[in-house]
Amino acid sequence: MNVAEAILTQLANWGVRNIYGVAGDHIFQLLHQLSTCPKIKFYSVCHEETAALMASAHAKLTGQIGVCLATGGPGATHLLNGIADAYKDQVPVLAITGDEATKDLGTDQKQVINQSMLFAGVTCFSGQVVNQEAAGEVLVKALSQAIQKSTPTHISIPKDILQKTYSGKLFPEAPFINTRAQSTDQVIGEAAAKINQFKKPAILAGKGAVGQSEKVLAFAEKLSAPIILTSVVKGEFQYDHSLVLGGLGDGGSEAATNILNKADVVLEIGANWWPESYLAEGITIIKIDSNPATLAGGQPIAFGLVGDIATILDKLIPQITASSDANWIKEYEKERDSWNKRVEKELSQAGNPCSPASIIEAMNKTIADNAIVTLDVGDHFLWFNRLFKGKGQSILLSGKWRTLGFGLPAALAAKINSPDRPVVAFVGDGGLTMLMADFLSAVKHELPITIIVANNKYYAMEKNKMTAEGLTPFGTKLHNPDFKMYAESCGGIGFIVEESKDLEATLQKAFESNKPCIVDVYTETTPPATVH
């Protein structure tokens, strides 16, 4: 076999089943082998940034390594934004790039660049294969480090190396490399003793709580402690549970902010965002996370537990003997009641064009409980964080990198990996137009996703922030196409919604169509009351 075939065989041995990428002459040998590869499917897209964001979303959704493929030079540079997203959100992604022939490396030949230096800032390992017999070892090093450290890695392979005969080893998968640190029973007992001392606990649930809502709720119920959610778990928890106070952050729940400021201890469960501006000074923090590195992120943590969150909570809950003070329970229940009344009032806002709140209300009524919702960055996201009523949905977003353009690629990856679940992308017009060409990929690969675009003809977040700072919001106005006609010209379905009264029925039609759809919703640039 040649090196290209060996690379794919090695990837398949390690469980890789999907690769996302764009064709280019440096990777012809890999594409040729992919055309007949029985275990790996290649999803060709329009832009390498889409491919990298798909790989990142793949890792966020499945917990498995995502793989993207591009040619060298401009193909490699186009991957960087998506790899940076995976790097900041700490998920395993492998970027594979081609390169010019070995004789041209380091020269002024076209498309030659030092790829290891290029990727150094957004990977934990970037290696180049310059000898065919080293290909297997370099690839396995990249795979193992990405999985072990939950971060991206990169390898580049010159095009002449890919076609050479490979006689080196192929390595079996090594599942033990993903073994996580685990706090001992004694340490968990010490944590329980500390928690039992507090009378006004609050729980902050983050991305590590994905898939663990029942355990977190059981822990909260034992403590009679309110739960505050970061955006990525907004869908996981039933919004109407008596202990759930809503989302935290810009546009989030005032109840969540108020309670965090009054709690005497915050129990962080899988939250890697440090909401310093939302906490009372000097508050005690006890953190539970699967990644030991998050315990050293600058937070003043009084006590930390590391390991599988479900296992820790199973051991911790029986040792909780204290419950929240009765006055504390009354206080957060009062905050929650007040917040719920405000939410219902905001959700009732109609309009022509549609109010942002009315879009969220229509989504609340129509999105299936088992759906995957992908989000782009912008004021529409803040409205979602504020008013969306989670019922068990999975949320995919660009958490710390916060890149525009994430929503559509994430939706493509979600539908590929969870074909039986409805997938909805909620995006702004600015985010959609960044990578809009890849709606074509949804049609080409027959991926029935629904894109809801909040069309206010502005980079609304930037417009509103600049206005709030007394600046002229120059450069924030957009010139949009007819998104309905665009969807139809690509081979999908398009809808336009101009009034709030038509939102629910139109979304239902889109969801039932089983085709790639764009729902173009005319809306306002109004931000939520608590931001900008």
Number of helices: 20
Strand order of the largest sheet: 2-1-3-4-6-5
Radius of gyration based on Cα positions? 24 Å
Which stretches of 5+ consecutive residues score pLDDT under 50? none
Strand content: 15-25%
Give the number of DSSP strands.
18
Can you describe this structure?
The chain is of the alpha/beta class. It folds into 3 domains: 3-178, Rossmann fold (3-Layer(aba) Sandwich); 185-339, TPP-binding domain (Rossmann fold); 348-522, Rossmann fold, CATH 3.40.50.970. 38% of the residues lie in helices and 17% in strands. The protein contains 20 helices and 18 strands. Strands 2-1-3-4-6-5 form a 6-stranded parallel sheet, sandwiched between helices. The relative contact order is 0.10.
Ordered list of secondary-structure elements with their pairings:
Blueprint: H1 3-13, E1 18-21, H2 28-34, E2 41-44, H3 48-62, E3 66-70, H4 74-88, E4 93-99, H5 115-119, E5 125-128, H6 135-149, E6 153-158, H7 159-162, H8 185-195, E7 201-205, H9 213-223, E8 227-229, E9 244-247, H10 254-262, E10 265-269, E11 284-289, E12 301-306, H11 309-316, H12 326-347, H13 356-366, E13 372-375, H14 379-387, E14 394-396, H15 407-417, E15 423-428, H16 429-434, H17 439-444, E16 450-455, H18 460-468, H19 483-490, E17 493-497, H20 503-512, E18 517-522
Parallel strand pairs: 1-2, 1-3, 3-4, 4-6, 5-6, 7-8, 7-10, 8-9, 10-11, 11-12, 13-14, 13-15, 15-16, 16-18, 17-18
